[in-house]
Design a protein that fits this description.
The chain is α+β, with helices and mostly antiparallel strands. Residues 1-10 have low confidence and may be disordered.
Amino acid sequence: MCTSAVHNATEERELLPTNVTPVHYDLLLTPDLDALTYTGEVRIRVRVNESTDKIVLHANELEIQEASLTSSALQLDAPLRATSISLQKDDETAHLAFAQSLPSGAEATLSVKFAGVLNDLMVGFYRSKYTDAQGAIKNMATTQFEPTDARRAFPCWDEPMQKATFAVTLKVRENLTALSNMDVAKSVSLGDGLKEVSFNTTPIMSTYLLAFVVGELEYIESYTSGAHNGRPIPCRIYTAPGKSEKGRFALNVAVQVLEYFADVFGIEYPLPKLDQIAISDFEAGAMENWGLITYREVALLVDEATTSSRAKQHVAYVVSHELAHQWFGNLVTMEWWSELWLNEGFATWVGTLAVDHVYPEYHVWTQFLVDDLQRALALDALRSSHPIQVPVKRSSEISQIFDAISYSKGGSAIRMLSSYIGLDSFFKGVRAYLQKHKYANASTEDLWTALSEASGVNVSQFMALWTRTIGYPILTVTELDGGKQINVRQNRYLSDGAINEDDDQTVWWVPLGIETSANKDQPSTDVLTAREATFDLATADTKWYKLNKDTVGIYRVKYPTNALANLAQAISNGELSTNDRIGVIADAASLAISGHSRTSDFLTLLRAYSNETEFVAWQEIVLRIDALQSVWANENTITIGRLHLLTRTLLSPLVKRLGWDAKDANEDSLVSRLRALAIRTAGFAGDEEVVSETNRRFQAFFDGDRSVFNTDTLRSAFAVAIRNGGRDEFEKVKSYYADSANPVDQQLAALSSLGFTTDPVLVDELLKFALTDSVRNQDVHQAIVAINTYGANRGRLWQWYQDNYDLLVSRYRASMNYMGILVRLSIAEFVGEDKVQEVGRYFAIRDTAKFQRVVDQSLEKIRSNTAWLARDQSEVEDWLASNCQ
């Protein structure tokens, strides 16, 4: 019997019928980069699982010209042509009917001829514009198939479980380079300026990992040592003409990380080559296509002289993340999109591990706390969040879970687990998991089983709570017996603080990691497994204690007032690690938002950080101050002025200590980033010396002295100059963005700085500019990202979104996740119940199915911010009046 849905214990999935399944694809494509179209023919060897005269497979926005079957079981002299071809737009399928049935157990070959458009949607088989060495604008053809867009390129079974092998052939002009997942088997000249490039057959894999690129390309090359891969692997970076040397840094990272992963995973890289290519138009950051990884230019290319240290580190991480997928995702693939976190959460964690291995000076695990853990905790504090393992029924739901839960909370869960069972046991389990499931599909439970066997710990028993349950706990600490013991109680944490019984059903497995002044290097191994329990502290002479040593656990902690004061003193004395200092301030700020503590407690705690020296700690502090100022943005000028004074009191001494210029050429990159952060924050808070020096250097920079800013301070200086300036500064930064001779990351820094203007006329001009051809579709969010930082301009941004809604939907109809990004930027910083009602009414009459989760999360954030302001408005004013005169 033919069914269109498969049921399992947790969800109903809309899947293709399984009467026929693919074994192997022979795919021939002929792209025309002038007409921006292509033709294709695919021959799919299929296995017949149930007798049938109908075949259903995926196809989206393709013209299917003919379809036929051949099979020895049909006993026909000629191919059996389809009697009908029906394309179903809603479920993106092609229904083929035949005059004869294929018997169960037979093999057959389905041949389909089709045509398509090289679209401008950045999905499927699409076109990307680039400028060649002579300044001419040209097109290349490239692909982006994850999660469900292989079906836009050719008819196929476009589901992760439907693995097959692929033999790709591309018919292209002689002067063009053709790439695919595998190495070239042969290239044959066809005459008339054409050639046919055939690639070796891939291993068995999912459709979303297939890729091909055609264009004028150049490359640089290196090889792995073969120490862990058994043979040298050729690694190439491909770019548009004239840019290949900018791939040198990424190439060096790739060579080292490929060897590292082969070692820690215990399996050689399975393919004969690794290509990585920079694509000018690319909606995602990067895509892990097996053997042909595609990237945004900013995620792959580095100019050693001009790229910021922040951007350079980002390249190292993205390359490592994508290489992790070559094993975790490609070799072993999630069975369905509800297991997306298996791909992305693991790659987030192990990608960070790889960067730490190659560049320990980056201190990436400390940065992980801010970039991943805190980001995940913020989103997961909303009722509209979702579990790490989230049920997915249909393809329209998939893009909404490529978010901080799947990536950052997933990575944080792996970090917490690996810390608990130890890295040796963890990787022993990972190696067993990969070995058992290679070239197949697997589930989260398969990973837990392997890790349990390796560690001797029942991992599934406690980790299922973290992956299948939404949210995380707040631990409330109460001191007993004169401080010799503590009682710890867990409840679900929500950012609005309005917890009810239905919200608070989960009792998590929580590793406490209790450290004290007496046992800083040997935290307890206590685990909270009940709603509450009592624990002994190490010694009677403990001056302070802290839960969650090194901020590894996924939870918040509320301390008694005296315990928090003791921690503040320990911070001031330099007794806590950087990770712990970040955890304390992050928790205090979050508890202020939710009403578990007062905002004035957070403000008082800030004093303990006056001697802080570490960039990442300051990054978290500034993010928290920015959040407070955002919610208080429309308060009276006296309150705003006092908030600025508080900010200057904290950050201006840093600017004075660090100065504007590096002390030596080998300055630590994190010191450079701290300088940039301090300049931007103090400048925004109205530090007159900083603003004056920014303006002086800004003028010198545009007069031709590019030495006045280093690669990190440039972004901050642009932002401060625009926030405190007018049209002249705005136009100069805009012109810098438009100059393609500048590094891509610095161009984007300029674009993202334009929104800091306070001038409503310039804001309106920027919003119009964002939708012109001067801004690539993938970068519109960069143009508008800073507008919501100035309260008076938020309404303009929201109006722009409404006015251009139909245009945006049309432009991003194939990548509606991007619509979610624009929604969040346009509304999430609002404060006020009137805005909740206004935004709710607007979206209630629109089809937001593909980004509804972001709408819900943004509305919930507005409500939370509104409650925070209403609750703490007067006491913040009182605290500022007493402490910031």
